Phosphoribosyl-ATP pyrophosphatase
Amino acid sequence: MSTILDRVAATIAARHPAHGGDPNQSYVAKLLTKGPDAVLKKIGEEATETVMAAKDANPDQVVYEVADLWFHCLILLAQHDRHPQDVLNELARREGLSGLVEKAQRTENQAD
Ligand SMILES: N=c1c2ncn([C@@H]3O[C@H](COP(=O)(O)OP(=O)(O)OP(=O)(O)O)[C@@H](O)[C@H]3O)c2ncn1[C@@H]1O[C@H](COP(=O)(O)O)[C@@H](O)[C@H]1O
């Protein structure tokens, strides 16, 4: 069963200018035409807007801005030939491993 992440990722892939995406018809194609830094700039903007919504204690706006942030992260993943499932797999790999334990292990390994 395809999820919304799968479907949006597939749409993003299809909108790539190299695959015929038209910058005059498609936001994704227009952004990708501007080059990799344009996507990074949007991610920075959307992350900042997410922080501002949280500081304003506006839960609905937080959801809206996180959706913008995730959407632009999906474009970034496509640029790097990665799929949302790769991120889900990484989260699954980490499942049950405390961040504090992971950090302690990392610090221990760096000291070796
Ligand atoms: N999920 C989204 C989505 N979320 C946000 N956005 C766009 O991302 C932009 C967010 O930037 P801002 O909030 O800063 O708004 P802005 O000032 O208009 O943006 P800029 O002028 O700075 O680029 C807006 O233009 C939103 O409309 C999205 N555009 C497209 N999608 C998905 O991508 C698909 C393909 O879209 P097209 O490429 O446009 O066909 C769509 O069918 C949707 O499923």
